[in-house]
Amino acid sequence: MSKLQKSAWVNLIAVTICAIIGCVAFSLLYLLNAKGIDHIFVFLIVGSLTGLCIYVFYRKKSPEAGFDEREKMIYKRAFGLAACTLTVFLSCVCIIPFFVLSGQSVIKVYYLPLILFSTLFVAQFVHSTAILIQCSLEEEDG
Amino acid sequence: MNKSQEEALLWLFLMPLSVAIGGGLLVGLVYVEGPSLRRTLLFSLFAVWTGLFWLWVLLQQKMRRKKKVTFDERDEIIHKKAALIGYVGVWLYFVTACVVPWWIVGPRGTISSNILPIILVGGIIAFSIVQSLAILIQYSWSGKSSEKLDQDVFSEPHCSKG
Question: Is some CB atom of chain A closer than 8 A to the CB atom of B47?
């Protein structure tokens, strides 16, 4: 298994775990009926610290650093595909309910974090799967 | 100001304005008159029109290739970085747009369904603004550094004599 395939598996597993933890955390907050500006600040602080930690970790031990030209090309193609999927998925998820329900109706607000998690998961899933499929296709070709 | 900077400046104003006007009009129409086949078709046309903006960039790139080389390695790196910064900016916007209403209204609250297309249109606007600004800022930085480099080279004539 190449470095690229390993990183794809790691990303796929990590994003799945993050999505599950996020859904559980939001369900817990739903049950607690957490509301207010204070929670936004807590969320922003936690989010910023997590983002900073991930950035520092990836900066030091980035798996993409040791890729060869072929792997970089595969990674690039997969990234493009993930970005396209993200755009199409987000458009469908936002537009279809809007047209089905009409503009004057209301939706439950927990639909928004659900959109966020599903988009995050779909984007990373497509990215990792595209890498793994491309690698296996190239291995078959020899 | 080179061609890329001019384009970035144009995109910075043109894209958000057109998307905001087009998207806002359609959201308003659906809100006032309700959804119908005509609205759906209009929205599809709007989506195609927005998609044509990307096609315009590709066409320009092809035309540029045919004419002469004005897009060097440095420009390519700047554009790549700007696209990546735009992507990160969209994610930050998207997280904020999804989580902040949740906190304000409360998890068991409800919100107008108009928020969905507004989030989408806002995402397109956020991407174009962040990307254009990133291009302009990177060019201004690289312009300053190259100017400084030129000044350093010209201010030390004895260095070239060895």
Answer: yes
Helix axes A111-141, A69-101, angle to 10 degrees: 150
| Number of structural domains in chain A | 1
| Chain B nearest-CA residue for A93 | B116
Picking from A83, A103, A112, the nearest residue to B30 by CB comes out as A103
Here the tokens at position B3 are 């061609």
CA distance B70 to B68: 6
Q: If DSSP codes are grouped into helix, strand and coil, which group holds residue B19?
A: helix
- How do residues B12-55 score in pLDDT, each as one tens digit? 777 777 777 777 777 777 777 666 666 667 666 666 666 666 66
| pTM for this predicted structure | 0.70
DSSP state for residue A64 in the 8-state scheme: G
Judged by a CB distance cut-off of 8 A, whether residue B54 touches chain A is no
Q: Do residues B60 and B54 touch, judged by C-beta distance below 8 A?
A: no
What's the Rg (C-alpha) of chain A? 18
What range defines the domain where residue A133 resides? 3-141
Q: What is the ipTM of this complex?
A: 0.71
User: Cβ contact (<8 Å) for A103 and B123?
Assistant: no
Q: How far apart are alpha carbons B23 and B19 in whole angstroms? A: 6
- Record the tokens describing residue A106, joined without a space: 């209301």
| Amino acid at the residue A25 | A
User: Are B107 and A40 within 8 A, CB to CB?
Assistant: no
> Is the Cα torsion angle A92, A97, A103, A108 positive or negative in sign?
negative
Q: Two tokens at B154?
A: 């010209």
